[in-house]
Amino acid sequence: MRTLFIVNPHAAGGRAARIFRQIQNRLGEVFGDSFIAVTQTPEEVAGHIHRAAQDGLTHLIAVGGDGTNHVVLNALFQHPVPGITFGCISVGTGSDWRRSLGAPSDPFAAVEWLARAKPVPCDLGKIEYRDFLHGDQPAARIFLNIASAGVGGDVDARVNRSRRRTSMTFLRATVMSLLQYKPQQITVKCDGTIFYSGSSYLVAVANGRYFGRGMWIAPDALMDDGLFDVVLVEGMSRLKILGALKSVFSGKHLRRKDVHQTRAASVHIHSDEGPLGLDFDGEVGQGQDLIFTVLPQAIKILRS
After folding, report:
1. 20 to 30 Å CA-CA from 15: which of 58, 184, 288, 296?
2. Residues 278 and 229 in one domain
3. Backbone CA torsion sign across 65, 68, 74, 78
4. Contact 174/249 with Cβ under 8 angstroms?
5. pTM
6. The last residue of a domain, from among 84, 116, 148
């Protein structure tokens, strides 16, 4: 077993590198021969994976937040390593993939959880779009947890601008975005059939169950069934959307008439009113024509 640890030192408010040093010895006992890469920029990740692959890489462990997972998996798909197993120690602001896995939040407990974990197949999502943030160029992203179109991109942008992140950062950013965001007219097709046409705050295309630091947006989502859970929130008054926000933490939002759910292997979202804000595992983007596709059991992940 040869393991590459990708450590994002900026995660957990800059505490990730220190947390990794505290758990490093036990991780070495669990995973044996290992490489450690403390990365300052996303661009460094692909090079570390490529070099480790030449030395017989078998496991890839991300230490950081949901955005770190996103960067690592996109780099891995640019430089595939046959038979690789992916795992993570979640120490970020949101840590929503950890919630979907049922892994503990304490880093020391998370290491013991990984020690018991086995490789299991996991779906990934792919989104293809024209990237309005980078010259309207064709773009594609892999996502592990959840991608969304609508207000989620604005929430992420607010969170990413926060100098000091706390347990309330996502909630404050979400409330501010909901009070200022104007829902756009969109059309959503799921597996080629029109699912919805009208005003919408958000369309979440979910492989995992949580986003926005604990919002239970897709309570029934399964990460290995070859399908997305699609959750759409209609345009509504600001008073109603704040009520919907409260219900999403318990999953009761799915009982609302202005919230719609389905399952699909492909999703096409089009906006007639210009680009939509995008969220991929906590990272931001903008696009107007969006194509989401499930990649069934595309990677093995560590799961207890």
Report:
1. 58
2. yes
3. negative
4. no
5. 0.93
6. 116
